Amino acid sequence: MYHCEAENIFGQNKKSFKVLVYQPAEITIFSSNQTLLAGNTIELDCEAVGNPIPVLSIIHRGEVLASTADLEAPAMEIDRQYRVKNNFYKSLQLYSFFAVRTSPFEIRFSLRQPKATLLDKGKYLCMAQNAIGFDERLARLDIMVAPYVQMDKLKTVEQTVRLLEGLPMFLFCPIEGTPKPTIGWYRNGNRLKSTVSTLFLPAVQLRDAGTYVCFGENAVGKTELQFEVDVLVPPSIINSVLYGESYLSADQPDQEEISLLAGDNVTLDCSSLGHPVPAVHWMMVDYLDERQNVLLPTRDPFVELYNISNTVTYSCFVNNTAGSAQKLFHLVVQAAPRWKSGPEYEYEQRVSLHHSLDLTCETNGSPEASVSWLKDGQQLSKHDEGFFFGVNGQTLRLLAAKLTDAGTYQCEASNALGQIGREFHVTIDVPVSWSPWGAWSACSATCGTGTQFRSRICLLVNGSPAHGERFNCVGENVEIKPCELLPCPVNGGWGKWSSWSNCTLACVTEYSGVRSVRHRSRACDSPAPALGGKMCIGEEYEEEPCHVKYCPVDGGWTRWSNWTVCSGSCGVGHSIRLRSCSNPVPRHGGRPCDGAEHEVKTCKLQECRVDGGWSEWTEWTPCTKPCGEEVTTRRRFCNNPAPKAGGSRCVGENFERARCLTKKCRNDALVRTGNTKKLYTPYLSYESNNPTGRARSNEIDSAEYEDPDSGHQDQDVTVVRNYQYAEAPPMEYVDVSAPDRMSITVKLLNSVRLTDDTAGFSLNFGNPTIAVPAPSTCAEGYVYNALHGGCSDVDECADTRVCAEVGQYCINTVGSFECDCIPGYRPLTSQTERYDGSIVQDMQCVDINECREKTHECSHFCTNVPGSYECYCPDRYLLGKDGKTCTIKRKRNEPVRVMPRCREGYQWEDGQCQDVDECALQADECGEAFACINTRGGYLCVPTDCPPEYELDSEGEMCTLNCTHGPSLCAEGATVGQTVSHTIITLDRFLAKQPLAVVSIPAVQHSAGMEFDTRFAFRGRRYGQIFALETMRKTSGAVRVYANYNLQRGKLYKLNLVAKSLRRRRLEFVHLFVIHVYWIE
């Protein structure tokens, strides 16, 4: 409102103006984009300003949910909430709307939804408009829904699905959510690869049964849907399955004939497979009157019958909800032949000439009797003219009786249990005239061209048959004419073989079982089958192996051998382990192995015994006497090294004595004794006229051993001195030309512990040139030689303990020695660290395997021995004088025969090329980790080594793994132990009714005295159509392995069998059996 005022002297005036400002609608606030969980509250607020007050509308999916147009905005009170009615079609969504006027020109419009659903998802538009203009804002609302099961899409509420084995299975998982959930499947707790809503299995097997869980998961949550799948397997009788009849049913029962003697007992086995477990029904069948059939009360698959007296048939019928199967057991009681009941036997038989006559010898008995016929004592055969033999020869028909057919006929029926016979006397009646021709017989052929015949008989005039040879009618009694029916079917015939194709492989891997083959084919067109004729019999496709070279085989290391025993029994030694490049041996141009053939490591069993060693000599003690003879000494100590670990003490003296070179004293010098109170005794001296001699003296200085202080004694040492000298009376000296000797006896009687000290006395009176010199110190490897007065070399090889290891010999050198290997051994050097830290080289000798390295000179076969090798020969060969060459045995003057050359893997023997058994001769190159299987012309290597985590047992029969140290050690779930064993089965001939092998759990588990429930099964069904298992009756710890006639020659089969042993429903042992089966071609 604007006011204008005017004023002068005359007065004043006043005028007012009202000004209205119009503003276009403008949205100032609108909720931003939101993401809510289903069930949460939706809150949208939209504020706008304008003059006049704008009308606000909220639009969702093109429809106006609510608008403030129905409100009188100018009349609205500020800050008061007004409820706005929503449109009718949205009323089910529980929307509520409120409008508030916040200022004279501002209004807020609010939307509330207490429970958000997917219908609320989308874009929301807030539109503000007035007479001046309009504005709009957009917000997006996303609703997230946790995964849920769409129950309305489930085909059935029942979550258990039952299917017949072999039918397809569809499991539908209708789980939805926002965002779209990720779908996954579990079977029996194991995750499956399928990630779609529908799980499809084209043909369910029994192993597919179990609990299936479908889950859907998104950022909001997770839900699951569970199905129980039960696979129904129609019954199949085990024995029939073993022999190839796995698809028998009750409409086509299996049949088995069992021959018995009267009074025998028999057990009928009707064990069956199926799921659910089939019910067993036994019935004794009467084929003549089914009302006489007897249903047995037992439901056990085994029926024991005793004292069988008559031939009878038993039916075994097994059924479950999936189907049924039947097997018939025909128990045939063997009996001697006996005549069938029928027309009374007549000895006399008559027949008109040119008529037929039947002679019958029908019998009962089992096995069925064979019947032979004789006429007048002569054997009749099927090729005799005029006779026809019925089924099994029990009926003999005379086709057109001749006069010569008259006579005595005998029939003899016999089987293994007895024999019976009959005689017939046949008389021929002769007619006079022919009777009218009979009707034509049926055509002899069922298709194409055949013959028909008709016959007549010779009659007497009165119409009766004529008798006697003179009454023979003229002409033939039988007339034959051709007949033709529809064309016969044409059976197919093979055309010529096509040319051989190229070989499939240019080279083959040795011992792999893979062969290079070529093939050819032929067509059934010579002629082609027509008019319902049979197809050709035989194969239209043929393969044969190609003789191609072996592919290069690179060498491979065997497993490391065990470490050898430590080379030193004490101190630091070394241990060696070896491996050889024989797994496989490089051949056919393959590369050799890369790496070392041996490894050496240091080892230490205990501290070594160390013998004591002398230290260096000390300096000589000084000479102190002014005259006379004096002794100087020096010492050494046994500490270089000191004796240790029971080592011996040092050998030799620990001190040395020598005379000092001083001037001679007066002759009245005396020798002291150990007792200072005793008077000195004079010494003896003389002079010689020998120009080489000089004065000699028996003077001995005992200062080295005297006690400087006679009153001082050590507490633990007692020295008793008692020196005795031999004295001589005055004597006259007679000079001689050669130096003379005088001897004196000195006795030292002491009771003192001298520890390492030694005492030595060398008293020599005479020429100093023959005095014993002081010993000298020699270097290691030398010893002092008193004869030569110097050090001489020590022959260490004289000690048998030097170079005493296998394959070594000793070589003496100056001051030392060397060890080398004898021929046939190879040196292996290693470094060993001594106790003092020094490094020494050590050497061991390892046997050379000349046979494996092919360095031998044998003409045929080689076997390795320690340090060498030996040659041996095949049968019928002799080893030559050189010990290497094999020659064939020949008698004297027998000409040399050049034997044909056999291909590789064969040798000439008994006039033909026969296979060489490389495995028995140990001529294979399979290595330690493989087993050898002999084949025609070669051999196969199959792995039999233990897995890395297993250990070979003490008997070397199976691999064992201890599972008691932790639940994660054994992947199969065993809680006590797992074993792996390998079995090799080679077949020269094969019978399907005989088991290939009996597989049993280890004997130690049998002897433990515990009750185990052991279940055997194949791991995988690769050869399920060939091999089968049969549980032994008296134990669950063993099964028999069978094969049917689908087993092929020359093919290596690897079977993986698992046995799980449970005790008190706890899986304790898992035994894995790897069985290799090979049927030699």
TrEMBL record:
Pfam families for this protein: EGF_CA, FXa_inhibition, I-set, TSP_1
InterPro entries registered for this protein in UniProt: EGF, EGF-like_Ca-bd_dom, EGF-type_Asp/Asn_hydroxyl_site, EGF_Ca-bd_CS, Ig-like_dom, Ig-like_dom_sf, Ig-like_fold, Ig_I-set
UniProt xrefs under SUPFAM superfamilies: EGF/Laminin (SSF57196), Immunoglobulin (SSF48726), TSP-1 type 1 repeat (SSF82895)
Keywords from the UniProt entry: Disulfide bond, EGF-like domain, Immunoglobulin domain, Repeat, Signal
GO molecular function: calcium ion binding
One term under GO cellular component: neuron projection
Start and end residues of each EGF-like domain: 793-831, 847-887
Domain Ig-like residues, every copy: 24-142, 147-230, 235-330, 337-427
Domain of life: Eukaryota
SMART domains xref list: EGF, EGF_CA, IG, IGc2, TSP1
Listed name of the protein: Hemicentin-1
Biological source species: Anopheles maculatus
